[in-house]
Write a structure and sequence with these properties.
Helix content: 25-40%
Largest sheet: 2 strands, parallel
Distance between the termini: 27 Å
Number of domains: 1
Strand content: 15-25%
Strand order of the largest sheet: 1-2
Length: about 40
């Protein structure tokens, strides 16, 4: 279907833990054909 390219959203100034954020992203997109690519700076 498509691709999404993101950084570690919410994990900088918001101080969220990437493990929690990535689990939420995986849950939201698990039933789709969307490929998520995560970039780090």
């Amino acid at each position: 279907m498509g691709d999404i390219y993101i950084t570690w959203i919410g994990c900088g100034l918001d101080r969220l833990q990437w493990e929690n954020v990535s689990a939420m992203i995986e849950e939201v997109f698990e039933a789709t054909d969307i490929k998520i690519t995560v970039y780090t700076l």
